[in-house]
Amino acid sequence: MTPASTLQTPPKTATPNAISAQTLATEIRDIYRVLSELPDLAPEDKVNALLTRLVSLCIVPYSHECVSYFFGIQGIRTLCEQLRPLCTTAEGELERFWAKKIIDESPDTLPASPTQARTLLTTFPYHQNYIDLSRIECSTLSAFLFTPTTPQNIAFIGSGPLPLTSLCILDIYPSTHVHNIDRDTSALSISRQLCEKLGYAERMSFACADVSVEESDVGEGVKWEDFDVVFLAALVGIDTPSKLSILESLVKKLRPGALVVARSAKGLRGVLYPILELGDDMERVGLEMLIEVHPWTKVVNSVILLRVKER
């Protein structure tokens, strides 16, 4: 009989899911390494190719086992925390580039005739994605709106230099006004000029504010209780605790019954955007969880709809 001390456990055979996860991890690490070594992330062929490849990898509907294995690989969660700020910077640079392009290339006679500016806007690389995401969000909203059935006042937090969601919302809801909030004054200035060129200025307003600061205002004469719906951009808050802190601050300002649309991510899409985990904390801060929607198309973000509870 062979002594027990000499017995060896045979090596485990890697499963297809484990192999796929390891391959993904290697490629995403390589993308991060190259992006982190670039002098800046302004749009150009190399940056565009790397980000396009990264998005393509992350939107594939992998199995739950593959996703679990991927996030269980040593160092992957830290890698994602390091990669997301680069994606955020690159996204901001891309929006800024296209907003300025539309402003500069549109005739000075606009917005009386905004056709050319709107045509240029449709050439933005992710234009259709924003249209699709906005349609999902507004369709979800329609199932939970009471009176009025069309929201009249919407706030969008984290609107950036190219407020595409706000523009899509105005197309979907012809009588709605959108208040764009961002902490970057430069982004807001560009956004304001862009909306004038596009002919949306009368239904848009802008305010510089940091919603992570409880004392922050949203602009002179604007009251939080006026908003029927508040959108929280995917990159507002780097993780669940920070997003939860922002939501808790919002609840104190919004009227009971107001709806909050928070963007999140699912599966490998969490490499690109922080995931907002739902749990008892939502109820604790005064929010009723209504629905969570996870697209499996090229739309990257998930949609979480919440309602401010009665106090």
Kindly describe this structure.
With 311 residues, this protein is of the alpha/beta class. It folds into 2 domains: 16-104; 126-308, Vaccinia Virus protein VP39 (Rossmann fold, 3-Layer(aba) Sandwich). The protein contains 10 helices and 7 strands. The protein has helices at residues 16-37, 45-58, 64-72, 76-105, 115-121, 127-142, 164-172, 185-198, 240-253, 280-285; strands spanning 153-157, 177-182, 204-208, 229-232, 259-264, 287-293, 302-308. A hairpin with an 8-residue loop joins strand 6 (287-293) and strand 7 (302-308). Helix 6 packs across helix 7. It starts with 15 loop residues before the first helix and ends with a strand. The mean pLDDT is 90.
Chain-wise SSE layout:
Elements: H1 16-37, H2 45-58, H3 64-72, H4 76-105, H5 115-121, H6 127-142, E1 153-157, H7 164-172, E2 177-182, H8 185-198, E3 204-208, E4 229-232, H9 240-253, E5 259-264, H10 280-285, E6 287-293, E7 302-308
Parallel strand pairs: 1-2, 1-4, 2-3, 4-5
Antiparallel strand pairs: 5-7, 6-7
Quick gist of this model?
The protein is of the alpha/beta class.
Structural class: alpha/beta
- Mean pLDDT, as a whole number? 90
Residue stretches low in confidence (pLDDT < 50, at least 5 long) are none
Can you tell me the CATH superfamily of the largest domain?
Vaccinia Virus protein VP39
Can you identify the CATH class of the largest domain?
Alpha Beta
Biggest beta sheet summary = 7 strands, mixed
CA-CA gap between termini? 74 Å
The beta-strand count equals 7
Protein name: Nicotianamine synthase
